[in-house]
Write a sequence for this structure.
């Protein structure tokens, strides 16, 4: 796998949320606004990229890799927890409103299956540069997925898009013109599950259609 494929696989082929369905708990809980999705995405990006790098550096030496193998999971968690603590402290100091909004889901990044999974499945067996690229692709793919869910939920639930802080887009006139009202249910947990389900169903339908078309072309050839 070249570096380009290593990077883009996190967007589509191995998207953490829409393909492997990892990290769904924060995805369903915090995607009430685009701002939350961006904030969580930045936090995951920082932790995932740096944890991949550090773990790759720890395991690049075969002797060191063999030495920590029996306790590799605790080692990975210590690395990830340290990075999450840094994110939490910085966010608490400089982005207090976002810190309160994301709440407990910031420290829960420590047990996010995406980060621990990439450490075990990729970073521990690959070079630092490849591990960084993998972390960037996976983190950006996850952020993209969070943003898509939050856009659907916020637009349908409140007829607005909270981009960051006071920067928001009010699309109430569009709803008024169409003659509909925002559906507050989409800002509730049930709305998160419905949105996630509809997106997964749409992606599955597209994938199945492409597979069927490819199969037909193979038969005709």
């Amino acid at each position: 796998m070249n570096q380009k494929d290593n990077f883009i696989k996190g967007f589509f082929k191995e998207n953490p949320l829409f393909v492997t369905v990892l990290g769904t708990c924060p995805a369903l809980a915090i995607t009430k606004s685009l701002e939350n999705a961006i904030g969580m995405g930045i936090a995951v990006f920082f932790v995932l990229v740096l944890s991949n790098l550090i773990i790759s550096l720890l395991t690049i030496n075969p002797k060191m890799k063999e030495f920590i193998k029996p306790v590799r999971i605790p080692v990975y968690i210590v690395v990830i927890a340290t990075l999450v603590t840094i994110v939490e402290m910085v966010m608490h100091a400089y982005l207090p409103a976002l810190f309160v909004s994301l709440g407990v889901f910031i420290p829960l990044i420590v047990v996010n299956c995406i980060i621990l999974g990439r450490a075990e499945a990729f970073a521990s067996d690959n070079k630092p540069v490849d591990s960084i690229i993998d972390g960037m692709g996976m983190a950006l793919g996850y952020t993209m997925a969070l943003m898509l869910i939050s856009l659907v939920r916020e637009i349908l639930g409140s007829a607005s898009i909270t981009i960051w802080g006071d920067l928001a887009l009010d699309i109430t006139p569009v709803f008024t013109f169409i003659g509909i009202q925002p559906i507050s249910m989409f800002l509730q947990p049930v709305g998160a599950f419905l949105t996630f389900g509809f997106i997964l169903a749409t992606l599955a339908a597209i994938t199945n259609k492409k597979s069927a078309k490819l199969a037909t072309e193979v038969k005709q050839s």
Notes: The chain has ten helices and two strands. Residues 3-220 form one domain.
